[in-house]
Write a sequence for this structure.
């Protein structure tokens, strides 16, 4: 697979995402929101609403509402769901691979079918294997003071798209192609993701207001409802960001050619209006006369000749006169020569 080092600014990539989403925001929102509800929302639901398999833990459980919980609950009181952790490990990431498939089909084929978020289950074991192997690699690199793990996370960030695009590829092949693809592009993706921080902060404000207004009991159904309602505006940012990420993959994979994006508009004759006396310019920069001016050139040349005292008949007359003079002169020479011969004979 070919790969390219992007020299396109982040604003241009986001602009491509906005242009693609134009007129499709609601339809794509349904697919993205459904994927995140099934991937993240179900983890929160199993943690809050299903008492089976819950244990007390010093470790904060998974979920974006955990940040808000820290303001009204001690870490010792956290209860986590073993079922939720298993769901997160073996189900959640499959929906993220399905989301990659959904966005690629939307961008490339304009196919907006939310059912594509389940595509990952068609090759479930390979998808799970990719998630596990990739997580092991990232964890191993993270043991070297975390930063190498972050770098490798960006190196492997395109593996979900590669598998979604071609499920026949192997697990190691997807990881290797992602690593090669991201050589020279990790910083670009990092900066691209940073540009969405402001949008996430803005979209999270309603969530914070609702949470502190309701003050739900941690681990309760009411907290899940607050989470569900508060996440609705955040899903819009996820839609924007994930569409941009899919376009980023199209660029680094070579599916979308950089010159095509930077090329100017195709010439349209209907957008231009020429007068009869106007002149066009050819590709080499030479001025070419218009059709009307070409038709008028013969008449113009005749007028030019007449102005200088010439015409077609006038040009033929001098030629006949010159020939007559030449004949006359030759005759006179012949007469003179004959007289000289007679004198010599006498």
């Amino acid at each position: 697979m070919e790969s390219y080092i992007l020299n396109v600014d982040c604003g241009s990539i986001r602009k491509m995402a906005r242009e693609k989403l134009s007129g499709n925001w609601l339809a794509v929102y349904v697919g993205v929101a459904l994927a995140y509800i099934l991937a993240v929302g179900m983890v929160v639901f199993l943690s809050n609403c299903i008492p089976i398999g819950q244990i007390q833990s010093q470790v904060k459980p998974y979920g974006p509402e955990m940040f808000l919980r820290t303001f009204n609950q001690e870490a010792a009181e956290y209860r986590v769901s073993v079922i939720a952790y298993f769901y997160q490990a073996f189900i959640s990431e499959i929906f993220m691979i399905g989301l990659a498939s959904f966005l690629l089909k939307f961008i490339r084929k304009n196919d907006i079918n939310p059912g594509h978020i389940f595509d990952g289950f068609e090759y479930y074991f390979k998808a799970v294997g990719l998630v596990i192997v990739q997580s092991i690699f990232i964890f191993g690199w993270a043991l070297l003071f975390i930063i190498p793990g972050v770098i490798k996370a960006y190196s492997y960030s395109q593996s979900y798209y590669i598998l979604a695009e071609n499920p026949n590829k192997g697990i190691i092949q997807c990881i290797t192609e992602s690593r090669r693809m991201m050589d020279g592009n990790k910083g670009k993706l990092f900066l691209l993701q940073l540009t969405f921080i402001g949008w996430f902060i803005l979209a999270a404000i309603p969530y914070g207001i609702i949470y502190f207004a309701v003050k739900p009991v941690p681990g309760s159904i009411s907290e899940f409802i607050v989470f569900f309602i508060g996440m609705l505006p955040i899903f819009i940012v996820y839609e924007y960001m994930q569409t941009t990420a899919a376009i980023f993959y199209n660029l680094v994979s070579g599916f979308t050619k950089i010159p095509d994006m930077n090329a100017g508009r195709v010439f349209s004759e209907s957008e231009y209006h020429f007068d009869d006396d106007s002149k066009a310019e050819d590709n080499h920069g030479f001025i070419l006369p218009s059709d009307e001016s070409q038709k008028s050139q013969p008449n113009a040349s005749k007028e030019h000749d007449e102005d200088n005292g010439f015409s077609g008949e006038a040009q033929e007359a001098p030629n006949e006169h010159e020939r007559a003079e030449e004949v006359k002169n030759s005759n006179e020479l012949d007469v003179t020569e004959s007289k000289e011969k007679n004198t010599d004979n006498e």
Summary: Residues 61-76, 260-318 have pLDDT under 50 and may be disordered. Residues 154 and 206 are 30 Å apart (CA to CA). Residues 280-345 form one domain. Strands lie at 54-56, 79-81, 280-281, 287-288.
